[in-house]
Each structure stands twice: as C-alpha cells, then as structure tokens.
Amino acid sequence: MDFANAPVVVDRRGFLSWAGRGIGAVALAALLQREGARGAFAPGTGAIAVAEAAIAPGSGALPPHWVAKAKRAIHIVLVGGLSQVDSFDYKPALAKYHGKSLAAGEKPDVFFGQVGLIRQSDWEFKQRGHSGLWVSELFPHIASAADELTFIRSMVAETSNHTPATFQQNTGFRLSGFPVLGSWLSYGLGSVNENLPAFVVIPDSRQLPPGGSINWTNGFLPAQHQGVTFRANGIAVDNLFPARPISAEVEQDSRALLASMNRRHQEARGDEDALSARVRSYELAARMQMAVPEVTDLNGETQQMQEMYGLGTPETNDFGRGCLLARRLLERGVRFVQLFSGGALGSPRINWDGHEDMKANHSQEARRIDRPVAALLHDLRRRGMLDDTLVLFTTEFGRTPFTQSAANTVGAGRDHNQYGFSNWMAGAGLKSGFSYGQTDEVGWKSAEDLVSYHDFHATVLHLLGIDHKRLTFYHSGIRRRITDVSGEVIRGVLA
How far is 314 from 235, CA to CA, in rounded Å? Predict the structure, then answer.
C-alpha cells in the first residue's frame, strides 16, 4: 500500500492510539511552535510515544531554597534487605555470642517468627582507608572507596514487610500511590537537559522490583514527573523510533494534524494533566531520538573504563553497564538516576532476601554490584563530579543478628530487621570517611541517633538545595510532602 497517498478517515482518539503504537510518527504543537517550522526534524526521525510521563523541560516548581551542595544524584537501591552485620556494621560481639540466645527475657518480634541463635558474620571485617571505617569482605571493592563514604548505621523502618518497606524507602510512605523521591526532585528542580528526562530509572536486568513500575511513580504529582525507564542492555527505550520507515511528508503532515487536533481539544475542554503529559512525552520523544543513541552507546568509552566497571565479565556486566550509563546520563544533565539491584521476591532468589543461606545469597548479589559501584565512585571522583553529585546506597531494612531457624539452633539465614540497619551516602556536602549513629552490641536495634526514611529524605533534599517542609503539593485537601509531618535533616553528616 502507498501510505503517503492512501485516504485515511480517523477520529482524534483513533489517531492518538495509532500514534502511540508507533505505527506513525508524532510531534506536537508546542514543539512545532518552538521550532517555528514543520520541517524541524530530519526525514525519517518520527517522534513516537516513549512514556506518558516523560519530563517537561524547565518544569521546576521552585528555585532552590539555598545554594545547593549537590546538582544531581544517583540512587542505588538494594531490594530484599541487605544484612548490616555482614557488610557495614561491624559487631565483634557476634563472634563472642555465636551460638547463644539474645539476652534473657528478650522476645524478638520478627517477620517469620523463627528465632534461632546468634550467628557471627560469614565475612571478615577490616578497617579501610585513612578513615579506618569498618567494611567487610562482602564488598572488597567498595571498601577501597571507604574514605568517600558516609555511613548511617542507625536506620529504622516502620515495617519489615518488603513491598511497603520498599515504598517507604522510595516515597516516605508505606502505602502505594505516593510520589517517589525522583519525582519530587523532578517537580522541585525541573530538568537541565531538555533532550533527556529529569528522572531516569535503570531496573535490574533480571526482573522488576516488588510492585514493578510503581517504584518510580509520580503519584499525585503532575504526570510528567514519573521516572522514565532505560535498559542498560539492548534497546534502551521502547518505541523511540518508528516500527517501519515513513516518508518525511507523511511524518510532517502527521505532526501538523495532531498539533491542530490537540489545540482544538484543549480550547474546547481546557488543559488537563493526562493530555498535557502525553503532549510533553511526544515532544520529549522527538528530542530523545537524537540524545538517547549517543548517551547509551557505551562503546565510546575506553576499553580501560569499560573493564573498570566490569563490562565483559559475566557477573558484573549488567550492573556495570547500568552504573556507566548512569554516569553518562548525569554528565548530560539528568537530575536523578535510580539503579535497582534485585528483582521481585520468591524463589529462585535474585535479590538480597537471605532467609535460607546468607553466605550464598549475599555473595551472589554482591559479586554483581561491588566492582561497578566502586568504579562509579572512583570515576566520579576522577572527573571532579563527586563534589557536586550525591550517591545514595540504600535498602528497605536489614537482617537479624540471630538466625531464622528453630529455637536453639544456628541456621544459615537471617530474617528481616526493621529496627536497625545501615545505608550510606557519598559526595556533595557530606562528611566523608564518617559514620553516624550506631546499633546495639550485636546489631539488633538502633541505639543512638536513630534515623527514619523521613530524616533521610529531608537530608537528601537539603543537599540538593530544597527545604523539605516547603516542597509541597496540594492533594485531597492536604499540602503533601515527601516527609509527611516529620523528618529532620541529619545535621551530623553534613560537612
């Protein structure tokens, strides 16, 4: 069929559906008006839907409340619950009490209710760098960057159930439907590069986290602030290019027609968030056709750089590509990049949920990310980017110092622990080579300077120039914010 000359009768809804499936190329009224000409794109580079929630350039709601220490952030999310007593929270008492019960009268309330005996760590701890911070052999490469790290060893969560705890880690709330941190930053600061989203998510290549894409939802914020997913391997973004070649004339006429239909629709019905977000997504998609192939082409990196991130090595290749892509995205103005380590729950375990065998589970997952994360830290430092970049390394909760097993036995796994666990941060505005807060003698409960996720989020926003109490959005009669009605900046970690 001659698509250029074939007669077409289609209403507006049908036309949008046709365009959204990638059969034709679409551009938008705002894009056409800004470019001032129908022929603003090269022939054959039709703009098609990437996501309905792509980012509107320059859409920051507020100027920064003060001079920001950080301009951008990378958030590495460990799904399943990293064991603090096997990684970053050295507790020599675990060896002393190995095979013994907790203090008399202690009745731990744990997720699966199976309380075994105390178990020492399966990994040796050593003091690292000039700072002397304790890091275990679970993360030997990250340990080499200990002098860059700021540990928070007194984190607490409100639940030990994975999915709501993961929501809380991302949104500050245990219920779904609230905006995630990246969406709040997109809303508050806007985009630097109009050709790329402000908020990009790189999921684990094996599987999505519990709850799937709700982990990067815009919630009740305007739809353009939802995270845009990129793949580190293969096709980075679905539907970015037309499914079949089309002529420049058809492409340009399609843009002009849809622009006219959108204008008439908005004039008749007024502006609405869903349509505006779709318009902006098509507009961004057109510009991303130029930017995405370049930023996702890792072959432009030197062989030495690729090897440093672990590219080409089976265990580290996937996460290494994600970390290297994250650095390239930040260099080009993306505000917030989130990388997930771990997928959905269940068996086989491809996450950090070490119920049955901590050594096997954590060794498997750490081998995938240890080298790439360390490479990212060293690379950012060498490029001078760590001075204005924030790196976040978090998990939804920790693990128990005693095993998940029958009473009076030392099992191989550990249960969920919401009462005390470790996160770390690195980069702009932080005391480096520093540890804040502590858990009790065996790492069971936070005992000093307790930190909630509301406190953590308030601190991240502070470093990015935002007062968490002033970044709000009116929804259902309430001025909502990521920290709800609490949250304090962790002043003790600030440089």
Answer: 19
Burial letters 7-24, b for 16+ CB under 10 A, else e? eeeeeeeebbeebbebeb
Residue spans of beta strands (DSSP E) within 404-469: 414-417, 421-427, 434-436, 438-439, 446-448
Look at domain 72-236+300-493 and name its CATH class.
alpha beta
The residues, any chain, with a CB within 8 Å of residue 455's CB and separated by 6 or more, are 487, 488, 489, 490
How confident is the model over 349-365, as a mean pLDDT?
96
CB 127 within 8 A of CB 134: yes
Q: Where are the domains of the chain?
A: 12-58+237-290, 72-236+300-493
Tokens 């318009």, residue located: 279
Contact (CB, 8 A) for 308 and 317: no
CA dihedral 32, 33, 36, 40 (to 10 degrees): -20
Positive or negative, the Cα torsion across 240, 243, 249, 252?
negative
Those residues with Cβ within 8 angstroms of residue 387's Cβ, 6 or more apart along the chain or in another chain? 427, 428
Q: Are 442 and 156 in contact (CB under 8 A)?
A: no
CB 359 within 8 A of CB 416: no
Listed residue (35, 68, 353, 51) closest to 188, CA to CA: 68
Q: What is the pTM of this model?
A: 0.83
pLDDT digits (tens, 9 = 90+) for 359-413: 999 999 999 999 999 999 999 999 999 999 999 999 999 999 999 998 889 999 9
pLDDT band at 13 (very low <50, low <70, confident <90, very high): very low
Q: How far is CA 280 from CA 27, 28, 29, 266, in A?
A: 9, 8, 10, 14
Closest residue by Cα to residue 201 from 59, 352, 303, 50 = 50
What secondary structure letter does DSSP report for 386? T
What sign does the CA torsion over 8, 246, 292, 230 have? positive
Mean pLDDT, the chain, integer: 85
